[in-house]
Amino acid sequence: MYYQINAIMEKKKYEEKPSVVVVDKVVDQIYTTVNFGIREVEGGYEAYTATMTGHLTADEFVKRINGYGLNEEMTTQELETIFEALGFAGGNETSVFKEFMLNKIAAYDRSESVNSFMLAGNRIWLDKATRVGLVNSIGIEKDAGKPETNLWFGGVKYTIPVDTALQMLAALELYALQCYNVTAEHAAQVEQMETAEEVKSFDYSAGYPEQLVFNL
């Protein structure tokens, strides 16, 4: 048997909520369409799709979905439905769910749910290199006696007292470190789990510090 996955990166829109798994037979060939990341939108639903032919194991399926980066859109419940509907065999269920959950943890760590803060009512983020660069440049401004610094984000200028800006950056660095520790702890916990049920019930969004809000 052979397998093939055709992953459609753009979301498809449906008038009614699609089934997670749809199996069709054309002549002697089986075509299985998996819909995932299903969410309700105005006028219907949206979902990603992956169409498969032939037979493949759960391990193979998840690896290919991960390769497309689409696992970030799939829910644990959808993956469970896929297992149940297609009866994948030949793979270790626990290891498959571990790989899935570790990817979900990494994706959440990169998401706006973690990597953002509010500045004067606007949601923005500064990566590590930018934070370090700003601390250095604003420190130079402070040494030169400048009372204020200008920060630009998304075409918007923010004029902030130098000491306030340095305090903000210090708080942001601490926040980023706390988030890093939570993400690392989550990954370590999942690695140590022994059953698929433990992995399925794990809440990868728990434990993160409250996002920072700076009012100027």
Overview of this protein structure:
- The structure is a single chain.
- The chain is an alpha+beta fold.
- It has a 4-stranded antiparallel β-sheet with strand order 1-4-3-2. Strands 6-5-9 form a 3-stranded mixed β-sheet, with no helix packed on it. Strands 7-8 form a two-stranded antiparallel sheet.
- A hairpin with a 2-residue loop joins strand 7 (148-153) and strand 8.
- It contains 6 helices and 9 strands.
- It is elongated, with a radius of gyration of 23 Å.
- Helix 1 (58-68) packs parallel to helix 3 (93-110), helix 3 packs antiparallel against helix 5 (162-192) and helix 4 (128-143) packs antiparallel against helix 5 (162-192).
- The protein is 43% helix and 28% strand.
- The protein has helices at 58-68, 76-86, 93-110, 128-143, 162-192, 196-200; strands at 4-14, 21-26, 29-41, 44-53, 117-119, 122-124, 148-153, 156-161, 213-214.
- The mean pLDDT is 87.
